[in-house]
Amino acid sequence: METVANSVQLPPLENPNERAAVGAELQAALQDLVDLSLIGKQLHWSVVGAAAHGVHLFLDELVEEWRELADVVAERAVTLGFIPDGQSATVASGSRVDPVQVRSLLDHVVVWELGRRVAAVAERIRARLVPVGAADLVTQEVLTRVVGTLEKQQWLLRVQLGEKA
C-alpha cells in the first residue's frame, strides 16, 4: 500500500532508477561546497598584507554564498528523497577540495589559492551537468546555478589578481 512517505510523493525523474545516482551527485557537490566554505573561513582568518582588509571582507561574502548554494543543493536532494550529509566527518572524507596550510598567507596568495579551488569545484560540478540532466532537468538547473555562481566568483578573484577578465 502507498503511503505519504513513499516514492509516489517524490518528484518524478526521467529515469526513476537513477534517483540514487542523482542524490550521490548532489551529495558530492554539497561536500565540496561545505568544504569550500570552511576553507574560505580559514583563509579569512589567515590573510595578511596590504589588501588583507578587503580580501577579509570579500571572503565573508564568498563563504556566505557557498553556504547558501550548499543549502540549495541539500534541499534539492531532500526534495528527491535523498538525505544529504553535511556533517564534518562526511565532508572531510568526501570532499575533493585541496586543504590549505594553517599559517598566515599574503593577500594575493589567498586570492590565488582560493581561485584555484573555486575553479576546481566549478569544473567538477560542471562535469555532472549532462549526466544529471539525463535523469532530472530540475537538478541540472540547480547545479547550473551553482556553476554560474562559482564561475562569476572565479572572475572576481582573477580581477583581484590583476588578470584580464
TrEMBL record:
Protein's recorded name: DNA starvation/stationary phase protection protein
Residue ranges constituting the Ferritin/DPS domain according to the UniProt record: 24-162
One of the Pfam families matching this protein, by short name: Ferritin
Signal sequence segment: none
Domain of life: Bacteria
Gene3D superfamilies reported for this sequence: 1.20.1260.10
Assigned protein family: Belongs to the Dps family.
